[in-house]
């Protein structure tokens, strides 16, 4: 049977990240299997209205302004008229929400259930239990997933976390690890500098990704190993911290910032490196690790969340999230 599927999230292209890439590639695979897929998100700058991507993938950029961290203001009622119209017009059978942080995903699933549609939710993140933001988010998740037909997590650690946070039955949750298109990440040793050991970082430069930890280890590694250089791809509020470290330790010739990268540019950055370093403080599944392994890099990562499940032990070096 062929289904009409609506993917909903606050996070989609032109914003860059693992969730955005996952939604796009899953949608393309479903289209290739004969299903109809549309994507609903909020507008990004001048990108608003309806746009078409590869294979006729239809994207609705709805006129809802963001409040915080690329998420729209939670109102429930404001989104109802547009979402209801889209679900009816596109004859949607399944509404698939992505990310526990996405207001639009939760509201779309709520409206879909009231319209008698099937709902699926994919949780891409790990979350705590004690701080105020965690308590509020977990309350929302319990409400949102109370009658969700099925949930998907990207690692077994993520599944345990979601089951506890949302108080749902484990049998309603499946573990489906993220995947990458291996043909897009073919190694190219000729791009590497034979006289240097190049460490690559491809990440959003935010606290959760361990940028303060990275700022602590860069000077120490450069002091111990004169032949090491860093290439940092990505952008975010912690970029200024890393730039200050580069200036304070006079590492301008050994630490290069590339800024925000489109997903199509990631492979060309990875093949220039020998080592990928991931300093995340919490991570359900790090897709950059898989991409780096495809490109033939040695992976070094913090031992957090679902990261130990991503690669076999011989392909990854794990360490506690500490400068020491």
Task: Name its key features.
324 residues, alpha/beta, Rossmann fold, 2 domains, 8-stranded mixed beta sheet, 6-stranded parallel beta sheet, 23% strand, globular
Brief summary:
This protein has helices at 18-32, 80-89, 103-114, 132-145, 156-166, 211-224, 239-248, 263-270, 287-294, and strands at 4-8, 36-42, 49-53, 57-62, 66-68, 71-72, 94-98, 118-123, 150-153, 173-175, 197-202, 228-233, 255-259, 275-278, 298-302, 316-319. With 324 residues, it is an alpha/beta fold. It has two domains: 4-175, Glycogen Phosphorylase B (Rossmann fold, 3-Layer(aba) Sandwich); 183-319, Rossmann fold.
Fold and architecture overview:
The chain is globular and about 65 Å long. Helix 2 crosses helix 3 (103-114) and helix 6 (211-224) runs parallel beside helix 7 (239-248). The strands form 3 sheets. The chain has an 8-stranded mixed β-sheet, with helices on both faces. A 6-stranded parallel β-sheet has the order 13-12-11-14-15-16, with helices on both faces. 31% of the residues lie in helices and 23% in strands. With 324 residues, the chain is of the alpha/beta class. It contains 9 helices and 16 strands. The longest helix is centred in the N-terminal third of the chain and has 15 residues, at 18-32. The protein folds into 2 domains: 4-175, 3-Layer(aba) Sandwich (Rossmann fold), CATH 3.40.50; 183-319, 3-Layer(aba) Sandwich (Rossmann fold), CATH 3.40.50.2000. The chain has helices at residues 18-32, 80-89, 103-114, 132-145, 156-166, 211-224, 239-248, 263-270, 287-294, and strands at residues 4-8, 36-42, 49-53, 57-62, 66-68, 71-72, 94-98, 118-123, 150-153, 173-175, 197-202, 228-233, 255-259, 275-278, 298-302, 316-319.
